[in-house]
Amino acid sequence: MCHLLEGVALVTGGGSVLDINVVGLRETKDLVERIRRVDVLQLHVDLAEENSIISGVQRAVDHFGSIDILINNAAIAGAIRPSTDVATGDFGKIIDVNLIGLWVCQREAIKQMLKQDPIKQRIGPASRGVIVNLSSTYGLVSPPGGLSTPAYVTSKHGILGITKTDATSFAKDGVRINAVCPGFVNTPAIKEAARASPLVQDEEKKVPMGRFGEPEELAEVICFLASPMSSYMTGTSVVVGGSSSEEPGNRQQNPASSNTEKPNHPGQRNTDWDAPAAKVLSPSKLAHVVLRTNQLGPMVEFYKSFLGAKAMYENDMLAFLTYDEEHHRIALVQIPGTKDKDPQSCGLEHTAFTYNSLTDLLLAYRQRKQKGILPFWPINHGPTTSIYYKDPDGNMIETQVDNFEDADEATLFMMSPSFAENPIGVDFDPEDFIKRLSAGESEAELQRRQEIGPRGIPSFA
Ligand SMILES: NC(=O)c1ccc[n+]([C@@H]2O[C@H](COP(=O)([O-])OP(=O)(O)OC[C@H]3O[C@@H](n4cnc5c(N)ncnc54)[C@H](O)[C@@H]3O)[C@@H](O)[C@H]2O)c1
């Protein structure tokens, strides 16, 4: 379909002509030049910066003299977590790139297109320019709960809004603007996610066509929308999701999306139970921890207080405690004959609970202190800033905040020489951190681990 395209095309992201990724830019240039005899200009542009976009578009116009096609492809996804775990700044970063950056590109391209003389097309009326915006099926519906990316989904919904609005405004000027809504497409990042996450693997099984799309299958639809073949289409979106409707396959199978539809039971899927598997399907999450105790009352009171939890059920033998959507996160069971804990024996070393921010971690620390619950070890491990406690039986509990934006960044740190030298961490004083936060020092600054050289595993038994 690409042979139908003529003129100057500006493509954001994908290591294409407008991208923040310099290596990707070079690779894409080499690839495109090998496939077709085209003149490629790489522009290092940050879509989070308005001036960077404006000057990038201007440099393209200075070089080629026009912009006939704009493919707004670049985007960032952000970490998978529900809104309650997303900081305002992180939400804003994604909106800045995916929605505002896309809109600025679109605005600057339209300004240029309106200056250009309409070009006669092989099919349809003369055109001043065409824009194709990359939204997503998550621009139409919500991902299932376990794949929640609120800012990404908001940006992809917003892209459809700005596509329709500007398409209507500039329809009579000969500028067409449409969007594509891909389902999962086998780009390297998605392949990696599918390898790592059973939730993503599950999504593939829910697609009516039974597979994720290939990048070429998406590219063909983008070329169609950018070509005169779609001359009577503007302000619309095309779903490329292996599904017969705009509803991705997961919609019917996500219990949270409807209270009338049946939940997806694994037995209802067309599963090949005997297919050879290199790896066992991982669970979707860790559900709870059950602790055996010989002092149920004090342990229940401690955990209620420590976690701000409540009992979903309790009697004189057991208690199920929760503080979130799970029916129980900690269960305590008093079995006759249970001996005191031997801290030197094998078994669970500690459980860990995550807070959304350093401020929350320290606030909980202060609130526990008011209740007489004191930590025994505050430490910046590198990937996390952590405060450790012991329960009345001597079980260790870590409370923590992630120091990095996402798991990838944390993994990179864990592969660094600093982590190899000191995989344990650096102690800190929570009271000192509270003082410094109150004085205006940033969370990020406090969470950056100061390097102290080699350190071994301490014993708290
Ligand atoms: N792959 C999928 O399964 C899928 C599904 C639905 C929608 N989409 C959409 O399709 C598009 C392409 O997806 P992909 O999988 O190829 O993504 P990708 O992550 O492989 O590529 C995104 C590109 O955007 C660039 N980028 C990121 N931040 C930037 C910034 N601030 N300034 C300039 N460039 C920046 C990156 O360098 C990268 O080259 C995206 O809009 C994505 O949301 C993809």
Automatic annotation (TrEMBL):
Residues 285-402 form the VOC domain. InterPro entries: Glyas_Bleomycin-R_OHBP_Dase, Glyas_Fos-R_dOase_dom, NAD(P)-bd_dom_sf, SDR_fam, VOC_core. One of its GO terms (molecular function) is oxidoreductase activity. Pfam families: adh_short_C2, Glyoxalase. It comes from the Eukaryota. CDD domains: BphC2-C3-RGP6_C_like, SDR_c. Residues 246-261 have a biased composition (Polar residues). The keyword Cell membrane does not apply. Signal peptide: none annotated. Residues 237-274 are annotated as: Disordered. Keywords: Oxidoreductase. PROSITE patterns: VOC. The keyword Flavoprotein does not apply. Belongs to the short-chain dehydrogenases/reductases (SDR) family. This is VOC domain-containing protein.
